[in-house]
């Protein structure tokens, strides 16, 4: 296939590849494989022709009605250099395909959690994930946007899991500005419709009402509770009943296998109004206090690092020479 020519074009089957394996993008990036596919388009693995570094290429048809990749480019450009965001290297259009090139991420929290025998993360790991998630949300809010789809599937770590300690927030396709160009909070729309993922969205979002900054934090809390408990209480409930269950569930039941002090965060979020700015530092300080109470340390290994540490320890024991007994 000639460089810069996508496989598909307007009107082709949606299953036809947007880019082909071996195709060169912008004379810089060689497509080496496909990572995933969805209604938004396709994510490919690629490598730099010059340096050999691996990257991810997100591709979307130019005639897509969702235009999620365009939003991704805007947010990643504004957030470049932020701790919890992928680096954006390049973006453009080839034929009828829009694309962006960004850091290649490792597994998502959802994938890591499901691969474990317990299907959960420890409190130690979950609390540190929570702190990083609040930091990530604050970064997004600081540039005037809401994410609107925070969930374990959109939270990932570095490719090298043995050293991965940073949580990255992915997929800004549903993001929306909550401030005007003058920096004022936009007035809530009457019936904006639902955007997000039902399991992790706030009650406000589930009802199709306008989401504010507080609603991103509700999604963080639901994600962390799932990390600790394996599943949310409404995980296998009929979708039309989820709102009622969320509204009527006591905090103690929601936090059945989570630190009871997290109830302070839930009550705080319940008290917040659409236009209010969250007290991010206070929320983080509460998670920090829970860590201190249980004597957890920030430099403790995360759950996904422990198998690598055990393997390293085992190899070191195998290499250790047997003691030699010398008789007099």
From TrEMBL:
Gene3D superfamilies: Transferase(Phosphotransferase) domain 1. Keywords: ATP-binding, Kinase, Nucleotide-binding, Transferase. ATP binds at residue 58. Residues 29-297 form the Protein kinase domain. The lineage of its organism: Eukaryota, Metazoa, Ecdysozoa, Nematoda, Enoplea. This is CK1:TTBK protein kinase. GO terms for molecular function: ATP binding; protein kinase activity. InterPro entries: CK1_Ser-Thr_kinase (IPR050235), Kinase-like_dom_sf (IPR011009), Prot_kinase_dom (IPR000719), Protein_kinase_ATP_BS (IPR017441). It comes from the Eukaryota.
